[in-house]
Write a structure and sequence with these properties.
The protein has a single domain, classed as P-loop containing nucleotide triphosphate hydrolases (Rossmann fold), CATH 3.40.50.300. It contains 3 helices and 7 strands. A hairpin with a 6-residue loop joins strand 3 and strand 4. The longest helix is centred in the first third of the chain and has 14 residues.
Length: 162
Amino acid sequence: MGDLPIPTSGFTLPDPFIHPLTLGLPNADATRQLGISLGKTLPAGSILLLEGNLGSGKTTLVQGIGQGLGIKEPIASPTFILLNEYPEGRIPLYHFDLYRLDPSEVEALCLETYWSGGEYPPGIVAIEWADRLSYIPPNALKIQLTYTALGEREVCLRRSEE
């Protein structure tokens, strides 16, 4: 058998989230492990829109992302302070929690400064309670965490519609 030709230019890998991907997460450790994988592989400029009920695993997932990025500082939900910045990892992590805000208050925060590449170094922007946003950022990855009938978590990852 001969060697297969491998394209060397003009070739890009397909977007793994062009079609929704649903995974079962039997426990919090599985949720954290998914986050670790995302933290190790997502590029700078990634925007994660985290949706799910209270206790569905949004913060646990972000803790795993931080671990995958190599962040040593403990990652806590920024529910009362809205934003935690973690600059010391492979790339920065910007962790927002919009739970206590309505869409007009969210708009006043000018969150786009974190992904526009101007004021802040490019990193991963993780937004809990992203349904509070008045618009969907371009090329964001929506991560919907839910509970199954058996009490386990399930996650659906998909690209946002622009």
